[in-house]
Design goal:
This protein has nine helices and 28 strands.
């Protein structure tokens, strides 16, 4: 006999299985599946359903009509000159524009296909064949010479790095990238030390290093306007089992470390890329007259109003109250008439109060909150502001008291003059 409890358990299991997100991993070398098994096992442990495909597979399919077959994409194919099946360069951009996430990993010799794909999302790789080198922070006793770098230039964002709290150095061997200073979507997640530079190996003299003085980006992130996130890493080796398990190394500058932070770093950055962290949501957006709860459709000029909303952050699969002191609301009619900071109560509720401008028209409450590592909040709620009615104006204005006095004094003087003129002999 099938009990109701058994049915509930089966339903829960089917729901969890159906909610598991599919991840497509494109490889140009099948050995990566074994040499990078720890990275893939970490993804599997988080509930992702991973599908390994060759980048040149003729049966490769990313989209079936208007339905995407995978929610996430990981590319470990730096030398791929063409994708098989129906995947083209435009397909990958369409995949991201549809709100899907991707992790793209290249090396020091990326193909033109990978270079152009990365450039289309706002990340410029160094010329093909260049290798990031550092004569100060390279790892000693390594067969890679001065090209195995230990970097500690992390982005100052807990939303991206999450539980990577020990900040162990990241071992990196590959190519660098650069992000345009004018870019509002790109984030340098891991930078190179100030002494690192990019050049062509084998040249004895380096006259003009391509990237130097701390301007090199090793791992970059892009948060598209569609909400999708893309992470670009310039080293395939930094995801490998060898770097994940390397312990007890020393840099040329004399710093000694007990372990590398590659495994925790790559896991946390992938979580951010796959929207497991740094996601904000807004609920309970409301406004009303000061001291009241009812939300009106319009306000009168110079009214006192109060505005509030709840913001929560996704952390570890749980929505927790978001805490920040830099959230603002604007009261806009073509231009912002009011810009006010929102106060919070440490429980996710943000609020403020201000006076309606003495200009009537159609206004909007606008929340445009963009913080590196978090999903942007772009909200607008329209409300009307009307002028005073004819019977709502004050009968006596304090500022008009001198005019009132002048009128009454003139009347009194007239009667006094008339009395004196008529009755005085």
């Amino acid at each position: 006999m099938i009990t109701p409890v058994f049915i509930l358990l089966i339903s829960a299991a089917l729901t969890c299985q159906a909610s598991a997100q599919k991840v497509l991993v494109l490889l140009d070398d099948p050995l990566i599946r074994s040499t990078h098994s720890l990275y893939f096992s970490d993804l599997t442990s988080r509930g992702y359903d991973i599908f390994f495909k060759s980048a040149s597979d003729r049966k490769l399919q990313l989209k079936d009509w208007d339905e995407w077959l995978y929610e996430k994409l990981i590319i470990f194919a730096p030398s791929a000159t063409d994708f098989g099946g129906d995947i083209g360069e435009g397909t990958l951009l369409e995949f991201v524009d549809a709100g899907n996430d991707a992790v793209i990993v290249v090396d020091s010799n990326p193909s033109e296909l990978m270079r152009s794909t990365v450039a289309d999302i706002g990340i410029d790789l160094e010329p093909k064949g260049t290798l990031l080198t550092d004569h100060v922070d390279y790892v000693r006793s390594s067969s890679d010479g001065h090209s195995l770098i230990a970097s500690e230039e992390f982005v100052a964002s807990d939303a991206i790095l999450g539980n990577f709290t020990d900040r162990s150095p990241i071992l990196f061997k590959g190519t660098a990238a650069s992000i345009s200073p004018e870019s509002t979507l790109g984030i340098s997640i891991l930078g190179a030390p100030e002494t690192a530079f990019s050049h062509f190996p084998g040249k004895a003299v380096i006259e003009n290093p391509l990237v130097a003085n701390g301007h090199a980006t090793l791992v970059a992130g892009v948060q598209a306007r569609s909400g999708a996130r893309v992470v670009v890493a310039g080293s395939v080796d930094m995801f490998s089992n060898a770097y994940f398990t390397l312990a007890g190394f020393e840099t040329a500058s004399g710093n000694k470390f007990s372990k590398a932070g590659n495994r925790a770093f790559c896991d946390e950055v992938t979580q951010w890329a796959f929207h497991q962290r740094g996601v904000l949501r807004v609920t309970n957006l409301h406004h009303s007259h000061a001291g009241k709860q009812e939300q009106p459709e319009w306000y009168r000029v110079t009214d006192d109003l109060q505005f509030g909303l709840d913001i929560h952050e996704l952390a570890g699969g749980i929505w927790e109250p978001y805490r920040a002191d830099d959230v603002q609301v604007e009261f806009v009619m073509l231009d912002p008439y009011v810009r006010a900071d929102l106060q919070h109560n440490d429980q996710g509720h943000f609020h403020t109060a201000f006076k309606v401008p003495d200009v009537y028209g159609v206004y909007k409450f606008v929340i445009n909150y963009c913080k590196p590592g978090y999903t942007p909040l772009d909200l607008a709620k329209r409300v009307s502001v009307r002028p005073f009615r004819h019977n709502e104006f004050e009968r006596f204005l304090v500022a008009a008291y001198p005019y009132y006095m002048s009128v009454f004094s003139t009347m009194a003087a007239f009667f006094l003059f008339g009395f004196v003129f008529l009755y005085h002999k």
